[in-house]
Amino acid sequence: MMNYISLILLSAALATGILCSGQDVKQTVVEDFKPSTLNQPGKQYPQVNSRGRVRASISAPQALRVQLDIGGKKYDLRKDDKGVWTGESDPQDEGFHYYQLVIDGAQVPDPGSMYFFGAGRWGSGVEIPASDQDFYSLKNVPHGQVREHLYFSEITRSWRRCFVYSPPGYESNLSARYPVLYLQHGMGEDETGWSVQGRANLILDNLIAEKKAVPMIIVMDRGYATRANQPSSPGAGRTEAGPTVFTAFEEVLIKEIIPMIDASYRTVADRSHRAMAGLSMGANQTIQITMNNLDLFSYIGGFSGTSNYPGTAEIDPGKFMNGKFSDAKALNEKINLFWLSLGTKEPDPFPGSVGAFRRMLEKSGVKYVYYESPGTAHEWLTWRRSLYQFAPLLFR
Amino acid sequence: MMNYISLILLSAALATGILCSGQDVKQTVVEDFKPSTLNQPGKQYPQVNSRGRVRASISAPQALRVQLDIGGKKYDLRKDDKGVWTGESDPQDEGFHYYQLVIDGAQVPDPGSMYFFGAGRWGSGVEIPASDQDFYSLKNVPHGQVREHLYFSEITRSWRRCFVYSPPGYESNLSARYPVLYLQHGMGEDETGWSVQGRANLILDNLIAEKKAVPMIIVMDRGYATRANQPSSPGAGRTEAGPTVFTAFEEVLIKEIIPMIDASYRTVADRSHRAMAGLSMGANQTIQITMNNLDLFSYIGGFSGTSNYPGTAEIDPGKFMNGKFSDAKALNEKINLFWLSLGTKEPDPFPGSVGAFRRMLEKSGVKYVYYESPGTAHEWLTWRRSLYQFAPLLFR
């Protein structure tokens, strides 16, 4: 019995790196793996242990090399005598991560996981249970609905799609009208991101059940748009210069999506009842679009991104975005909430660019609220937490 | 010019097999491949040519063997000097097909396609454009919505999900009430099947726009259910004996889903305005459940399946399902529509089991409508066409 406990303590010490000084010391892996909650029905792999390691496994009898590719690092799997390859990653941050398998050079989704659109593709995802996972869990509270809404855009001359969250009670309380949050995904993601990886519907269901947020409609649209007569721009949305796809989305949102939503749902169609937020590229878009249209929006949320991206240099409020941030008194009167967030482990340039943007706001005297997600990087747990912190402040 | 035309004619003849007598004759592949409409954004492969061949391509520089696995057959791909493997299948039937890649023995989804739940997993799908694809295409007509509806089942003690189609006008015409079609997927599929692979929403949008079908709500639920105190049965739903998962779904539908739908949506909650249909396993379930509950349903649709599955023997209407089909006069008065369908290329035992069921109805004198989908097997084009034929007959 003592030996068993000693072994556990030793394992724990090794896993957390306490006893590891040399590079080649093999860490003992804590054997409490469980199937990821994002696995396909009945699939046993990938698995996650209490230290956040991800264990992948796949049958590939004739393969020469199989790797797990997660968090920017590839881990070699080991083959057993039945041709099944298995292996573990280093501990990952809590929350959601995209990953893939590499089989003899072929980059493929793991047949064990469900699939999520990110990094410009449908691919595998794994969930490291977070210490605060309760706020985005499926619980026994009244649930709203997520609706697929198809529409034709005259500006882009194409069919587009948004997902619309209608809160609990929307169907039974037919005379009620609701405020609207326009909520945007990041670069490489799409209109499915917020209601799937982001769990925006469950976060709001839980907040509304606890009366921490008012019932609201959430519109999750596709942040890419190209005018019918212009070529698409692959690196779009990333620079302050504002390429085609970026400015076309503003036009689609203002001229097509908002009027359509106000016509199709029981909204309160004024700026006091309209918010916009987004993550990363979506944060950049949010700040640009809301500051260009303060007659339409009074709540602004930038999660892990700002409109000076990727710049980290000091910003002159008199010049930035044509001086839109220079009149702090007018902005502070007009804007009900300017809200920014960042994960504490975000990579460059996010800490620098968000930091420079905050200093610009402070220099100018524009009020804002700032939140930091502890222990998370440029990933979905940062954004789930951001929505959880941001939504209760809306429409009060 | 003559040479070019001759080549096209020769290619056509070869591709259709006219000149192929020997097993080893290499068929010329018609080079008019286009990316499948079900590809991920921007992905060039898989592609489909005018003869229904599927061409797959994937980079796997270190692989020894890569295969395309479609329609029950594996096709070896060829490697080029850059390590990209490419190759074609035989011509496939028009419509939707599940498929996968096999890389050195590993069965994986194709990173080029979108993913669909079928055969018990999320996997790749490819679409061979059908001659009649117009009826399920996204067109410039008013569109309904597909809503994700989460609910807790007390019978199974678990969270379940259905997708609910609300027709165009549902949101604007708040005093209108609608009939309901309960529409079930097949074995190995789930509640996503009908609105994704099946395109049920687009089929109804188009029918309603042409005034060929009345506006209706469609509920697409998960056809598996296990009572909380009973173990799940993996081969469930396939036999007449009625294993746990099968009868538990009936109980969940009757006691939980129908009351929930009638409470949550503006339905007309009587048997004259309630239909049930399903494909394969879902057809088996539909016939069992509606015949057990004729006080609740008056329209019945069995697509590619009947409740004698997998039996092909003659059926005695006096004994089958406890004699439920023996009183034809009463049934013909009570049932507004009993509708069956099959694809002309369906494999055993479907032609035999559906045939035996039809002869039983005829022997008893129970009226029914029968439809055959030309040139399709036990696949989604058969079921899209079935819905397109069935829905106009409902609620008249």
What does this structure look like?
The structure is a homodimer of 396-residue chains. In chain A, 23% of the residues lie in helices and 25% in strands. Chain A has 396 residues and is an alpha+beta fold. Chain A has two domains: 16-129, Immunoglobulin-like; 134-393, Alpha/Beta hydrolase fold, catalytic domain (Rossmann fold, 3-Layer(aba) Sandwich), CATH 3.40.50.1820. In chain A, the strands form three sheets. Chain A has an eight-stranded mixed β-sheet with strand order 12-13-15-14-16-17-18-19, with helices on both faces. In chain A, strand 18 (337-343), helix 6 and strand 19 form a beta-alpha-beta unit. The relative contact order of chain A is 0.10. The interface between A and B is large, with 51 and 51 residues.
For the record, give the distance between the C-alpha atoms at the N and C termini of chain A, rounded to a whole number.
58 Å
For CATH, the homologous superfamily of the largest domain in chain A is named as Alpha/Beta hydrolase fold, catalytic domain
Poorly predicted spans of chain A = 1-25, 234-242
Tell me the CATH topology of the largest domain in chain A.
Rossmann fold
Q: Biggest sheet of chain A, in brief?
A: 8 strands, mixed
Strand content of chain A: 25-35%
Mean of residue pLDDT values of chain A: 92
Greatest chain-chain contact:
A-B, 51 and 51 residues
| Radius of gyration of chain A, whole Å | 23 Å
Q: How are strands sequenced across the largest beta sheet of chain A?
A: 12-13-15-14-16-17-18-19
CATH class bucket of the largest domain in chain A: Alpha Beta
SS field, number of helical segments of chain A: 7
Count of extended strands of chain A: 19
Which secondary-structure class do the elements of chain A indicate?
alpha+beta
Number of domains of chain A: 2
Instruction: Describe the oligomeric state of these chains in a short phrase.
Output: homodimer
What order do the helices and strands of chain A follow?
HEEEEEEEEEEEEEEHEHEHEHEHEH
Going by CATH, the architecture of the largest domain in chain A would be 3-Layer(aba) Sandwich
Shape annotation of chain A:
globular
Classify the helix fraction of chain A into a percent range. 10-25%
